[in-house]
Amino acid sequence: MNIDDFKDIAPIEDSEFKARMAELVDEPAFENAVKFVMPDVDYQAFAQQLRHIESKDELQKKVMLPFLELLEKKTSSGMTFSGAENYKADGSYTVITNHRDIVLDASFLNLNLLHHNLPTTQVAIGDNLLIYEWINTLVRLNKSFIVRRNLKIKEALDAARHLSAYIHYCISTKKESIWIAQREGRAKDSSDLTQESLIKMLGLSGPSESLRENVEAVNLLPTSISYEYDPNDYLKVKEYILKQRDPEFKKSQHDDLLSMETGILSFKGHIHFHISPCISDELRTLPAELSKQEFLRATCDLIDRRIHAGYEIYPINYVAYDKINGCHRFDNHYTNQQEEEVVNYIGKQLARVDIPDLTAEEKELMLNRMYSMYANPLINKLKAKE
User: Fold this and answer.
1) Tell me: the pLDDT tens digits for 254-263?
2) What's the pTM?
3) Which domains does the chain show, CATH number per domain?
4) How far is CA 151 from CA 139, 156, 204, in A?
5) Burial class (CB within 10 angstroms; exposed 0-12, middle 13-18, buried 19+) of 335
């Protein structure tokens, strides 16, 4: 196989980069988006800078790196990174993470890799987020590849095989790492669990007919992402209540855009990334007699334990645990002032939920949901260390 087999989903090749970038900067909607995110930008000067860029890597180093550094400075209390020794510069990995923010999970991961002079990852992105054609062009100029969603059964299986083949091509032939979230969509309650269907997809293609050997070949690298505050917490609570009212409720494209905007521009507190060691060798030690289903479950469990163990735990997580359980188990991990700040923060975020005619029961559900959202990373970390 070669890159021509994957042109429908792969990042734009560097040979086409300048021509596609020239089209993008002339797109009025792209100009409006840039001015929204960077209100003080001289767009014509910025567009001229983009026209002179030759490749995806150059775009990341000259444009995305300073932009993400500015975003980190403006919307966080700082970012920390551990486990860089587990990501070898000459290696190729499937970096699999919990999923908190639609845009920034992979972007901040790549920022950390750039700061450590390590190769960045290609990024998996669902086509449901590519609402406009210029967004499709933009993400593929920035080393993203496309995951096709919401297909009929036959089309979905073909798309999964195609995606699996592309990931194996990146790992084994191009020797490039990729990033993928451990599940489709974000965990709405922050209890992060890997979807078996994702691991099954990774095993559809590869060096052999064996699902197990194919999964081992993609060099899974579990990575934990910890945001002190989730800017989308109130939007997740809102969606939860709307689904309680109507189980058929589905978010609109406007909702997805609002989530992306909120996640990018709102305050996140402290941010931490931790890369755990590659699990391929551990997968090879699993009993040979495991069925395919048992192997998938064991793989998901191993990824989950690694991700949960790597969480950074903040005062809000300890406070939320004590609140949801009506106890003082972790009150030595936060001060009275920090507890008050958490209570005020939760109240402020819940006040942003714009659902009409909320009942007292729904308000109680919202409060419990919000505290559970912040308690679950701590609960899962405690279980991972048992």
Assistant:
1) 888 899 899 9
2) 0.95
3) 3-229+267-311 (3.40.1130), 316-384 (no CATH)
4) 21, 5, 17
5) exposed
